Each structure stands twice: as structure tokens, then as C-alpha cells.
């Protein structure tokens, strides 16, 4: 809502690629190196932000005059100084704190997930002793805790220089966008940590979010420019695709997935026995397995090991599959309807990226059909956002534990169906999916409409320009960053400085030249976090908002009107008992505040009385109509604030659930790290024991020298009942009838290091029902590939919990010592 005589904001043309001012750096010009006109990174010049030079308070561009509402600008600044303690203010504070905790916890989870992935890939090699000494040290360092007071901080001068550099990087996303296109794929995860969770880490702060999206715009524009084939756009595993996937895992994306998909997925996985497999070969194998179990032998007409085409023509297989197809399509339809109905809940940033994909495609490929463009949008929205959460809901914290075998397969098929629908279906690799083609045909048009609707969001350029402008008045602009993030970012920019900033007068080059060579990475234990203030050498902070806003069309009367309205709203919030009185008596409200015992209210009351007199003298408001214009605006604002409080409370409730889920996931990741720690501690103890010759000892010749080692002995058996495994969550799913489970038990032995036998027994029988030989590598590979299921035919076991059990009973503790000695002996 604008003050009288001031223009309201207008929207940029839909689909425009004109970026906002890359930084507030050109808002206020002071002595220092000149900066070339910023650009988006795609060659589109960016108009400078309106600003004030040190010698003139009147230098404001026409863009500011014609396109901005002084109301929005003033309200944005006024919010920073309001000291009102009403229910709305308290609710807003709780929400801000909660969002801050989610942002911080998301970063911790990102780091932990990366550590767990790394350790998953290295522990197997460590067990087999196929790992170099420096890699062993790296494994050990990954498990070290950070000592916050390690003393490894940069000195005061360096901190100031880094403050300047990171303000520039945050405020001018084109620099980071250019760097993201230059780094190796192996370097991108570390850079993404800094960009997504540190530089723009406040996931709910408008300015940071919009700056991050501006960076995406530059990266996507360059990706489209460099891609020569339409079919390969956004489909390869590149730094850009990794960035897009990482972006969807931030707080808003996680909140959306939980709100939209969690209930639907949990309802499905409750049906553990619902088998909807439609791959004819798998259906055939399951069928002959059941026949053999019932009859003891297979008839000649059902041979083993048939090719897929033979299985597909089997009449019994077709009869099994046909009703499953209808059920699958019904379930997929419910998922699709739920997703489409959630259009307005899709996070703004994800919709804006979809909009950029559509706009960039239309620019580069004007002849591309709407269906082809929608396939690219669907490739991002479904392939990188929706479907990974459907296929592995446990990794996205949507379910407790890993779904059982049949629901897990059903979720995979649903994801395939949605992807085929959204992404120009191709069934070349999976012929059996052709049976689900009616689902695609029936929903194709509706899907394209949905994908196009995703793109229908406004641009944020004007609000970002405002946010950048107002950032100059903030005294607490800062980021929480680790020392190694500082040094790593410094290193990457120095490596590519000639490409990023060839002109030695550009701000980026000036700051990096002053910083000099990047320091080496500090040990993990010394990698503490610091609160880095952000400020620029080339800008003057805004001291007087009124002076800064005034120009030929934004007059002192406009400023006075907005300030008067703002103070009356503050007074009503501080004295809520008066807020519902009608008609609203503004002079009486000001008098009551001016004569109260609260010094803050007194100051505001006296000030608003003076402002009201000035506005009346200037004929902006009229006492004779009881200041109706001002009354209407204050009343409207109060209604808006009341609605805002309800929205804040609802958003807080939703995000509290997200925060609990993120914390639960953090605890799970930490428990995995603790397992690795316990394993390494035990292995080092056993190494010392083996080399010290404790217990039964033998002597072998190694490189001409005698070496003592512990004799290898079979470990076990360790016995566990079916109910024990169920209670510990080791059994994910069981096909053993309920009345027989009490007679089932498991024996686990380790005949040689790294080798395990799990035997399933029935009480009273001498021989086991079945045995499975396992290598530690097999289990670790499953865990690395996010395949949590170990199928023992009658039961399915949870791989991470099996590993934890092996470690708990001591089956893993001897591996490094004995593997090392025997590897050398060979």
C-alpha cells in the first residue's frame, strides 16, 4: 500500500532474464577502484541500484522513482527498530529462531552426510588393508571432534579482509556462479557447503534466498549456452545438477516434501504384504519359488532361468500382473493428484528455477514444443526433487526406518511412472513399463499444465534491489563459517582468478591481491566456526532513511505519512485493548501514549502528535473527516497483522515438525559416525594386541623378518531369536508365520576375518533351514548404495543394523590387525 502520491511497485516482465543489481556495491559510490557495470553472467547488463553519493542526498535513479513504493521501503527499515512486545512480535521471534535453527541444523546434516558417504567408501578398504597411510589419517581425521578454542583463527587484519571479500561474494552472486562453472566435480560438494549453507545459509531470509536464485540464474544461463544438444540439457551429473539437487534438500524443500508426501507414503508402506511387482521375469521367479515351496518340485512346463520374453508370455504370469497394473495406476494417480493439488505450497525458489528453465529453453530453442520444454521442467522437478524422496523416503526423513520389500518396490514403480509422465517416456530399457502407458496417456495434458503452472511466479528483482539497498543500514550482517570454508573458498578463487577477474582494478581482484596466497587447510580438530561480519570497503552505510528515500516524487510529506502510520500501528500493538475501538480516535490514541508512564510510549506519542500536525498543515490529512485516510490505512494494517499472526503460528507448527525430523536425522547420522569410531578404536586395540603377541601366538616370516600375530579363530556362533531381531529393528520384514516365529533363531559365525555366516534355524532340527555367506565388502557396498536390505528369503534384515550388531559382538574388531598381517604374509 503506497502513501498518497507515491507510485506502487510493478512487476518485471514475465520470463525476463534481467537480473537485479548484483550488489549494493554501486548503490553508494565512495573513493576506491571503479567497478565495471555488473552483468548477469549471460551478457545481460544490470542497471545500477539507486543510491546516494557522499556529497549528494538527491542522486536517485528514475527506476527508483518510477517503480518503488516508499511504503514498502519505509516499512522494511522501520521493522528493524520496532520494539513492540505483543503476541505477533513474540510469534515472529519464535519463528525466526526456529528458521535459524533449521538452517544451522541443515548445514550440520549436510556435513555429516558427506562424512558418512566418505567413511562408507573407505572402511571396506581399511578392513582389507587396501588403503594408503595418508588415507588412513584422513579417515581418522574425519572422526575427530572440532575443538572450538583451538586458536587457529586468522588475525584481525585477515578477518577484516575476509569480511570485505565475503560481503562482495554474497552481494554479487555472479562471482560465485562463475566459479561454480570452473571447479572440478570432485570439488563441488565442499563449495556447495559454503554457498548453500554458509554464504546464503539463512534459508528463510528473503535477501539471501533471492541472491542465491540470482546465482542459479547465471549458472543455468551458462549451462544452456554451452550445451549443444537439447536432449542432454540438465540431465548429466554436473556441478550444476548437483547444485540443483542440493538446493531442493534445504529447509523449505524438506518441509514441502514432508507436508505433501509423508502421509501418502506412510499409508502405502503399512501394507507390507502388498506385492505389485509387474516385471514378468521377477513375477515368474516368485511364482516358481512358491510352487516349489508348496509342491517340493517344479513341473517340466516351468523351467528355471527363462528369458524375459518367455516369462512375459506365460499365461499365469499375465494373470498375476493384470490386476496389479490397475492397482498401481490407482496408487500413482493418488500420488499425482496430491502433488498437483500442492502447487501453491511448492517453495518459491523451486518454482522460480522451473521458470528460468522454461525461459532459457524458449530463448535458445524457439522451435521447441511445449511438451519438450515441459520435459526439461519435469526433469528438474520430478527427477531431482520429488522422485528421490519417493524412492528413498527414509533418506528424506519422511518415514521411520526403511520400508519393507514390497512397498519399497511399489514406490520405485510409482516414481518411474511419474518420471515417464513428466519426461517424455521412453521404455527402451524396461519393456514391461509399456503396460502402464494408459496412465501416461490419461495424464499427459494435465501434467504439462501443472509444469507450466509451476513457472507462473513473479520475479523478485525489485524486492531484492530494495533488500540490497536496506542491507547497507544493517549493523549485524554476518555469516557463520568454518576456517576451512574460508581457506577453501579463497583457494578456489585464487586458482581461477585470471578467468574470474582479469582486470586488476576490479573489486574481486583487489581484495584477493590484498589477501595474498590462501593458507592451507587446518586439521579437522582445529576447524572451528567463526562469526564473520560482512561489510564493504566501497559503500557508505545508510544513516538517515528519510534523507536516503527522498527524491523528486518521494517527498517529505510522503515520508511523514508513512512514519505516522507506522507509529500508530506500533501504539495499537503496544495497547491492544484500544485496537478494536471504532471509530478509531487517532488524536486520543496519541494523547494516551504521550501521557502514559512508559517512556517509549511517551516518545512515540509526542512524535506522532507533531507528525499529525505537520500532515494536517500540509493538507495531507484532514481533522474534519477524523483523518479518514490515515484511519483506513492503519485499520487495514492492523487486519493484515492479525492475519499475519495466524500465518506465523501455522508456519511455526509446520516447521517445528520439520526441525524435529532434521534433528532425528542428525542423531541417526551421528550414531553411524559413532559406530565407525567404535570400530576404529577396537581395531587399533586389536592391532596392538596382535603385534604384542597376547594370547595364542604364531610366528611367520614377513620380508625376511619374524612377525608375531594372533592365530585366526572362528568366532561364534552368536545366537539370537526372531523376537530379539524384531525388537532391535534388525528384521525389516518377515515371511515366517506368526505361530512359528517363537521356534526360529539365528546363529552368526565368522569363520575367517571379514567373512560371516548367518544361519536360520528351526528348533528341533539339526541342520539350518538356510545359510548365507557374507563378505564385509558386500554389506558396506549395500550401505554405500543406500540399499538397506539383506534378503534371507524368509526374512529381510536391515544392513546398517546388521553391521552394528557385528561390531557390538566383536566380529569386526579383528579385521584390520589380522588382515594386515595376512596380507603381508601373502
UniProtKB/TrEMBL annotation:
GO terms for biological process: negative regulation of Ras protein signal transduction. Gene3D superfamilies: GTPase Activation - p120gap, domain 1. PANTHER family: GTPASE-ACTIVATING PROTEIN, RAS GTPASE-ACTIVATING PROTEIN WITH IQ MOTIF. Residues 1-62 are annotated as: Disordered. Residues 207-423 form the Ras-GAP domain. It holds the Pfam family RasGAP. Residues 81-108 form a coiled coil. One of its GO terms (molecular function) is GTPase activator activity. This is Glyceraldehyde-3-phosphate dehydrogenase 1. The keyword Coiled coil applies. One of its GO terms (cellular component) is cell cortex. Keywords: Coiled coil. Residues 1-44 have a biased composition (Low complexity). The gene is GAP1.
